[in-house]
Amino acid sequence: MRYFRYILTLGLLMATLAVAQERPVPLEVIIEQMETGQYATALEALDARIDADINDVQAHFLKGLVRVEQGEFAEAEAVFLQMIRLFPALPEAYNNLAALYVERGDYASALHTLHEAIEHTASDTDMALLRSNLGDLYIAMAIDAYRHAQTIATEDLGLDAKLDYLSPMLD
Asked: Which of 17, 102, 114, 162 is most buried, by the most CB atoms less than 10 A from its CB?
């Protein structure tokens, strides 16, 4: 009987350790790791959270941000695209994906992404943010168009004045 008690105690101890090992790292800890540049540790914890719960929106989002911070834009893009597939009604992934596209000068993809987000968004607050970002994108596109026009213009088209007016809007 005594032997059985030890086996039972050992079994309970092992089960407790297994549960403790499976407990995900709290998001606050992961954010602190990100803020202190411990990206590899944060990614490991985020992957574990996602493996444990594919619907952990915050873990997906933070993983995308870690990839951006590391300059791994293709990986960040993949994370945000996966978020869009899993959570199509959440605008954060669309916004961040559009920002990545703008960063690399792919305005057409950014425009498409923001329009897609607008189609899937019901909240007025989210819609306002999406529309604001869309407006900023149009301004950025206009600035690029005016700058290109300056390089080929043979006469004064008032481009300097237009650029002087628009450029501070994105600062």
From this structure: 114
